[in-house]
Amino acid sequence: MNICRTKKQLKLAVKQAASQGKSIGFVPTMGYLHDGHASLLRAAREENDVVVLSIFVNPMQFGPNEDLERYPRDEERDLALAASCSTDIVFLPTVEEMYPSKPLTSITVRSVTERLCGASRPGHFDGVGLVVSKLFHLVQPDRAYFGMKDAQQVAVIEQMVLDLDMNVEIVPCPIVREPDGLALSSRNVYLSPAHRTEAAVLSQSLGELAQALNVSSSMTGAQCVALITNKIKETSGEIDYVELLEYPSLRTVAMHIPLDRVLSGQRFIVALAVKFGSTRLIDNALFHVEEVIERV
Amino acid sequence: MNICRTKKQLKLAVKQAASQGKSIGFVPTMGYLHDGHASLLRAAREENDVVVLSIFVNPMQFGPNEDLERYPRDEERDLALAASCSTDIVFLPTVEEMYPSKPLTSITVRSVTERLCGASRPGHFDGVGLVVSKLFHLVQPDRAYFGMKDAQQVAVIEQMVLDLDMNVEIVPCPIVREPDGLALSSRNVYLSPAHRTEAAVLSQSLGELAQALNVSSSMTGAQCVALITNKIKETSGEIDYVELLEYPSLRTVAMHIPLDRVLSGQRFIVALAVKFGSTRLIDNALFHVEEVIERV
Hints:
Two copies of one chain form a homodimer. Chain A is an alpha/beta fold.
């Protein structure tokens, strides 16, 4: 496994692969890897000649009052997991290596960033767009793998790739969950045991919604949101948002008309962000409206 | 000469070149080519295996009251000039091909866009950044060639390439001029005969400034600007701006202190934009301050 700490080392490694006509699969992460990341690495491994993993806690995507400083890090464990997934190249830059001077360039994706985390975390997706754009230019991947837990991130990056004619295929991968349904996240380690137990409510409320929609496609958006909200209110969780939006446009949906009337043939997302103590967790489920509403 | 009208055709042509390990030199233009463009193509020809020219009048970099509709076009003549410079690939997309849907992504470069055309033409450099970024992703050049008549554009693109880790070398090329000094521009065809004669004042005033600075390095910025401004006021030209700034940062300079005291070891630019009738022309000169001030 080739561990690159500088852009120069990475570019050389990538150039060698490209000169041999090898395809490159790329998994950008902030480290503290879990089985969700492993699923991305395995998908990349299956579909490409060379697998590149980046581990970089990107300060530009954290707000001033967010958890940049305490974000969990464990390089040794990350490298062991990377090796166990047959990763070829790991890019492990410092902040100074990625940003030798304060960047004057910003990338903003409008519309898809207006709601959800785009509203709760101002500037977050500009930071994501900047770092992903930099990493794509350094790695020049054929395919890049992202987890659907960050469904809005996937939508933002797909839009950026489309608008900028970036030569990379974005591969969204399913959310990986704990046995009780909690979506894997590096931030789960922050949770107290009591909050960890309660946090299962996120996925469980989405599961109950899926069942309810299966029974009646004529539920309204407002009824869907209320079902989730009421369930979460039975815990100590503090709701940041529970929203139902078109996907991947993330446009708003008429909330008081049955979903099968407003969204025929379309996909929608139910996305939530909830704080347990000082730990903010997100989760979501995608649905497709045909004659009935199916979870996808 | 391979003429590509779609992104798909272009990507195929570029991929073939790359798979043979060939270096790519790229000259992005808005067409109506003149000897300035030819000098870029010749520079690209000398330094690369494959030369790609793009001709695209980019609506995103024109303001609502600018000359998008009447911008001069002559595809046949452009292709003849491209062929005479041994161009290998010409990319000639329509607006619909470049922007199949309204882009939601914008690229903004701060600081270097605050003055000069960045101030006079709001949104102009966002449009330039977007289209150049798209073209770089499509062409994947090793080197890209830009004329120094658009010195601010060069500074903006160099900053974008740096900040986004784009894998391309930006090659600035000298301004090409008519015998009387007028900088070549596709927009010169708009000029009436009388304005065409008067327009030589732009380069002539810059030449006089260079001579004055050669005699006395202790001139202030204000004195330099006044020298140019007074000269232009002898004509019917309507001044948009005459500015003296650091280059390439395009930061302001203390205007009432001798230049050799405020800018030791640095470069500065004197840049002007002047309207003759409805035609807006730009020109500039770069200077370097060592023990004396030298034009570069």
